[in-house]
Amino acid sequence: MNPEVVQAIPALVESGVLPPAAAPRLLRIARGELVSVHAELRALLYAGVLLLTAGVGLLVRQNLDRIGPVAIAAGLGLAAAAALVWVTRVAPPFSWQEVASPNLAFDYILLLGILLVAADLAYCEAELGLLGTHRSWHLLIVAALAGAAAFRFDSRVVFSLALSSYAAWRGVSLADAGAAVASAAGAWRWNAIACGILFAGLGLGLARAGRKAHFEPVAVHLGCLLALGGIAAGMQDPAWGAALLLAGGALAAVAYRTRRFPLFAYGVVAAYVGLTRLLAEMSHDVALGCLWIGASSAMVIAGLLAVHRRMKEPA
Amino acid sequence: MTPELGRSDRAAAVRAAARSWRRAGIIDAAALAAVENGFPDDRVRVGPVFRALLFVFTLVGVSGALGFVAAGMGGGRGGALAVLALVAGIALLALTEFQVGALRRRQGGIEAATSLMGIALLLAAAAWFLYEAEHLGRAPSVPALCVLAAALAGAAAWRWGYPLYAAVGAAAALAALAHLPAGRIVWIALPLAAAPALLRLSESPRLPPAHRSSAMAVLLVALAGLYLAVHVGSWDQQIVERIGGRPSWSTLVAPPGVPPAPADTGLLWWSAVAATALLPILLLAAALKRRRLPLLLAGAVAAVASLATLRHYLHLEPIWLVLTLAGALWIAVVFGLWRYLESGPGAERDGFTADPLLTDRGRQGALEIGAAVLTLQPGARSPGEAHPFEGGGGRSGGAGATGDF
């Protein structure tokens, strides 16, 4: 329901701003007589995929002995194959450019198929020891499979799964970031930074090559988050606070030049946290700390308002 | 809300519609510019990212400044801190009014943060006066605080047009009403009585868009309260009574060490069972009839909650089978709905369509990818170990076996 738009449409048609042919349908939408449930159906589909894969995960764990490995592996394989065959049948031809999804369910059935393949692979590896001592390599295989599927079927959701599976192979998961920061684990930190740089580089490479350039935001955002998170994980040492200040400042500067608003936000927050960490090292006085937080926030707000006049993010 | 702010919001609604027409290719850039000239923006606004940054830094900055003043006052004296909170709260609310009024800020982040801090500080001050200064204790203090929270949030929603405050105010009012002796009955009667009026208000052309959204927000909270009041699990656990600060009767009569018995298994209990099943259906039917998406989502959430309740009471096992079948059924139902809508004349049925229409697909895609990045996190291998297989399905079915499969 949008009464203002209902009121505005006839005047806009009369003044020639709005094509008369489009007006009846737009009026129906504004009056609430025609409602799209596109986004809602996709969200429900995603919830269904998560529900089903969670059930499959429990099935595998709880019924190893009762059902038997062959039945479980075959069942998972068949389900995955069914999903992927459907996807292959309806998929448009490959292109390096963005390809419109053939229908509402396409992305999520592909995701379901890949997740089932991943579960099957992990199960077979665990039961049969296919990878010998390199058991965690199944994450790398899943990353490669998901990456290939993402490129072939042009799915950014599956591409994000490929990246997070690769990071998991390197021992990094955003889900573990909090614990990693608390424990200041060195291996986690370096792997996160390396993965972050790799992902951001991959994204920029794709954009520069003009091949699946629309994957770039996924890779760059995940890469920046991982790299900044990795640096932040070392902040018990003030040197890492300085590194976070520099990295955040550099990211904010680049994002400012390229008008990348979310990246600018990551950079500003990271730089602020890094600077605050350094100042906390210099003084442990609570009142002074509060004064710094109050005054510096006011300065950041003033800076943001000044920057917004130049960047002009659409409201 | 001042008439000026209302007019500004109405113009913003038309501009937003025009931008969606532009995205859909219905109008060109020149036409969009014409609409923006015809419905000019007289407010100072910022985009969503800057808004979030300004909001967060305002919260942090005000907290730091208050911390500095409190530290200067010597810290621990409760009365002085309460006075500080009272003064700062009033000042922040006045600052919000100044920003929205004289500075003509809207969707700017800072004014939202100052209003939130102002309300929170006034509530903190009131809590201190009730608990510490008046020694009233929990029983009279909590409902009084809930009433104050409802009044402050409701006034902020009305004055500055924040639907979120309307929802919070409604929730606080329900929490206050739960303290009445017949709290559960009020939770049932009031939403039923108010729902038609709220639905009409949410569609009324006389109200500005923010107030219409506020009416819908209050309606959704009222319906959530109604569902909680009639829900069989809430009846068994006496949840409304617990919110009202009264121990459930079953815990009072149960001997020490013995788990409390269900509240009742008589007519009222069976009525709650029937209501738990029927309310989602009625909500969905009303949503389909009025074609209101928020109601449709509320009905869907209630339906899922009722199905989960059914599983709980019927002890449907094993859980993996329930989840797998529910997921498969869920996907099948969505598929069926999509096919049904697609096959209708003009790809629509009864005013519903699965086509995106004027959806901002860029923003929708970003949200979907964000959700996928957050939920599809395969358990990472531990450094230096071979990473044994663990089943699970815990974290949303990530790609790897570790931790999840």
Key structural traits:
heterodimer; A: about 325 residues; mainly alpha; about 0% strand; B: about 400 residues; two-stranded antiparallel sheet
Which structural class do you get from the secondary structure elements of chain B?
mainly alpha
Structural class of chain A: mainly alpha
Count the E strands of chain A.
Answer: 1
Extended strand count of chain B? 2
List the topology elements.
The complex is a heterodimer of chains A (315) and B (405).
Chain A: H1 3-14, H2 23-31, E1 35-36, H3 38-62, H4 64-67, H5 69-90, H6 106-128, H7 137-153, H8 156-169, H9 177-183, H10 186-209, H11 216-232, H12 238-258, H13 261-282, H14 286-311
Chain B: H1 3-23, H2 29-38, H3 48-72, H4 78-100, H5 110-133, H6 138-160, H7 163-177, H8 183-201, H9 209-230, H10 232-237, H11 239-243, H12 249-253, H13 267-290, H14 293-314, H15 319-342, E1 348-349, E2 352-353, H16 361-375
Antiparallel strand pairs in B: 1-2
Helix pairs in contact in B: 1-2, 3-5, 4-5, 5-6, 6-7, 7-9, 8-9, 9-14, 13-14
Descriptive notes:
The complex is a heterodimer of chains A (315) and B (405). Chain A has 315 residues and is mainly alpha-helical. Chain A contains 14 helices and one strand; from the N terminus they run H-H-E-H-H-H-H-H-H-H-H-H-H-H-H. Chain A has helices at 3-14, 23-31, 38-62, 64-67, 69-90, 106-128, 137-153, 156-169, 177-183, 186-209, 216-232, 238-258, 261-282, 286-311, and one strand at 35-36. In chain A, helix 10 runs antiparallel to helix 11 and helix 12 runs antiparallel to helix 13. The longest helix of chain A is centred in the last third of the chain and has 26 residues, at 286-311. Helices cover 70% and strands 1% of the residues of chain B. Chain B has helices at 3-23, 29-38, 48-72, 78-100, 110-133, 138-160, 163-177, 183-201, 209-230, 232-237, 239-243, 249-253, 267-290, 293-314, 319-342, 361-375; strands at residues 348-349, 352-353. In chain B, strands 1-2 form a two-stranded antiparallel ribbon. The termini of chain B are far apart. The relative contact order of chain B is 0.06. The chains are: A mainly alpha (315), B mainly alpha (405). At the A-B interface, helix 1, helix 2, strand 1, helix 3 and helix 6 of A face helix 1, helix 2, helix 3, helix 14 and helix 15 of B. Strand 1 of chain A pairs parallel with strand 2 of chain B.
